[in-house]
Design a protein that fits this description.
Layout lengths: L2 H24 L3 E11 L4 E6 L4 E5 L5 E4 L8 E2 L2 H4 L7 E7 L6 E9 L4 E11 L4 E6 L4 E5 L5 E4 L2 E4 L10 E9 L2 E9 L1
Length: about 190
């Protein structure tokens, strides 16, 4: 093979790699928490009012999954948004999505019901990497410890990562959306603010 053909193939491969890298960077999965305010079956959109009071609208389709976090078997089901969320306005969800602005598309809607998901805000005071816990001093001065398990996600500047793979930093200001059970407070969505 001639040098010019090899050079052309290397250049083509590098161009393709750069194109794919930029496409994947733009298609990072993000997450937001809120309460379902409206389901539009005709437009295939679901509106969520977030804890900061804004309303986000997400498109959904046959590849959008729904997971009921309260069910014993927490398997996600695809293509059931229309039927699952019919009449469930007020239900708290964590939405994983791709895109920006009016082009946001939900990839997973995790339902926590109307009263299950709680919110904590404050400053990270201690991180225990072994036990995968993070202590947060809340705005009212109390301290709470949260478990970063595989069930939750952390919103980063590059998209979401599983909570059990994330290392929080002391001093960070954060908001934590969590559930409680006999094992304590379990992070469902963790965001630096």
């Amino acid at each position: 093979m001639s040098r010019s053909k090899v050079f052309s193939q290397v250049l083509l491969a590098a161009s393709l790699a750069a194109l794919l890298t930029s496409a994947y960077a733009q298609d990072a999965v993000h997450a937001v928490e809120g309460a379902v305010t409206q389901l539009d079956k005709k437009a295939k959109t679901i509106a969520i009012k977030t804890t900061d009071g804004t309303e986000d609208v997400f498109h959904y389709g046959e590849h959008t999954s729904v997971r009921d976090s309260r069910a014993a078997a927490q398997a996600a089901k695809m293509g059931v948004v229309d039927t699952y969320f019919a009449g469930k306005e007020g239900s708290h969800v964590v939405v994983r999505y791709m895109g920006k602005g009016a082009g946001k598309t939900a990839t997973l809607l995790e339902d926590f019901g109307k009263d299950t998901l709680k919110v904590g805000r404050g400053t990270v005071t201690h991180v225990d990497k072994e036990s995968r816990t993070v202590a947060i001093k809340t705005d009212n001065g109390a301290e709470a410890t949260y478990k970063l398990g595989a069930e939750g996600v952390v919103e980063t500047q590059h998209g979401v990562v599983r909570a059990n793979r994330y290392v929080a930093k002391e001093g960070d200001k954060v908001v934590v959306h969590y559930t409680e059970d006999e094992g304590g407070k379990l992070v469902r969505l963790f965001k630096k603010i």
